[in-house]
Amino acid sequence: MTAVETRPHVGELLRTWRQRRRLSQLDLASDAGVSSRHLSFVETGRARPSREMLLHLAEQLDVPMRARNELLLAAGFAPVFGRRGLDHPDMAAVRAALDLVLVAYEPYPAVVIDRSWNLVSGNGSVALLTQGVAPDLLAPPANVLRLSLHPDGLAPRILNLPEWRRHVLHRLAREAQLTGDAELAALHRELAALPGGTDRTPPNGIAVPLRVRAGDRVLSFLSTVTTFGTAVDLTAAELSIEAFLPADAGTAEALRRPA
């Protein structure tokens, strides 16, 4: 006898996302401008939502595009968000935009990462951060968070490692919770188990710097993230650019100085 795999009911998925956002049925119904009774019927399977209603509720819940496709499939509708590889001809403009931004950040390190924090691309200055990293950590798909916290990666050169670990792990835990992504949750468990300690003192300042030893110099960076705000393709929507900008004048001068 063969086991049949069943999809979760669309109402169950909606309820999970509502609870993940810590909203009551009344809260969501009010935000979405629908009847709380109808929403209750949808969640329990007594009513079948229309495609438009489902997308509207997903918008109110800030459900990621990938999960919106899953909601549509669970309700018997076709997905609306496509996914093309970066090498697809239709993605030429995206590739050009990524390359343009990476070059613009020179001489400061910048990387393109996917939704799992895997390295997609980087500019020439990334070598400043990958010096001495074990080759196996750089083998595709290289995960930039693992690179930064692993004892065979950047971690031994990070002068404020406990503080940086707290920042990275908090950020990753929040993303895993907000997206419901099991892969991110597994990555968080893996990285939390690595040595290096975690700073328990309250954060001080407006942002957490990354302070790295580079030869006889100490470089201090602040990270910024850029995303495609109007993307309707899964690949583009799940890409982001993280740039490491100088946090002090000494770092800026050191990086602008010709090698």
UniProtKB/TrEMBL annotation:
Pfam families: HTH_31, MLTR_LBD. Residues 14-68 form the HTH cro/C1-type domain. It comes from the Bacteria. This is Helix-turn-helix domain-containing protein.
